[in-house]
Design goal:
The chain is α/β, with parallel strands linked by helices. A four-stranded parallel sheet has the order 2-1-3-6, sandwiched between helices. It has a two-stranded antiparallel sheet with strand order 4-5. The two termini are 27 Å apart. This is DUF523 domain-containing protein. It comes from Lentihominibacter faecis.
């Protein structure tokens, strides 16, 4: 047996930190104790290697942060930090490509002001002194700050932009079984 050959699938998916470690979520939004087992199991069953991306919010504000909307994070300092994290992920993607691996996708957390793929949060009323505001009222279509920066970093390197998928795990009113079913269908389509 050639020592350069082994059982690796050479397929990798990049995953937002909170999908594998709910301890990075903003307080009040964790729907599972440690990780979303259904997400992990689905990736495992499809022989996908997992590249866990750093949580920009935890690194910027910390674990005790309160809820934010994209307009609060959409500033020069936070974008710079997101870009630094995105550049590191693009380094991984470039190295994987160089070695013949396939980056099959990027999983973000829909609803997040940072890692939302198709849904983020924006509300001009958020900011200044904390007031009682409804996070669900702030949900809009769009990408989070980090996802925007990650896509730019990938494109600027001339890498193929993998499919991005947002898991809406923060909305307690959403049907978790439907979310997982849709996610599994997406993974089957790319794996």
């Amino acid at each position: 047996m050639d020592r350069r050959d082994d059982n690796r699938s050479k397929k990798v998916i990049f995953v937002s930190s909170c999908l594998l470690n709910t301890n990075n979520k903003v307080k009040g939004l964790a729907r599972y104790p440690g990780m979303c087992k259904e997400v992990f199991d689905t990736l495992y069953e499809n022989d996908l290697g997992i590249q866990q991306m750093d949580c920009p919010e935890t690194l910027y504000i910390g674990i005790q942060r309160w809820w934010h909307t994209k307009n609060l994070y959409d500033n020069v300092g936070f974008r710079r930090q997101c870009r630094e994290i995105a550049e590191r992920q693009a380094d991984y993607m470039e190295e994987y490509r160089r070695e013949g691996y396939k980056v099959v996708g990027v999983l973000g957390c829909d609803g997040s002001p940072t890692c939302g793929v198709t849904i983020t949060a924006w509300d001009e009323n958020w900011g200044g002194s904390p007031v009682d505001l409804s996070f669900n009222d702030a949900i809009i279509e769009g990408e989070g700050v980090y996802i925007e920066e990650l896509k730019k970093a990938i494109e600027e390197r001339g890498l193929d932009v993998p499919p991005f998928y947002g898991l809406a795990l923060d909305d307690e009113s959403a049907d978790m079984e439907q979310i997982i079913s849709d996610f599994r269908a997406f993974i089957k389509s790319i794996a």
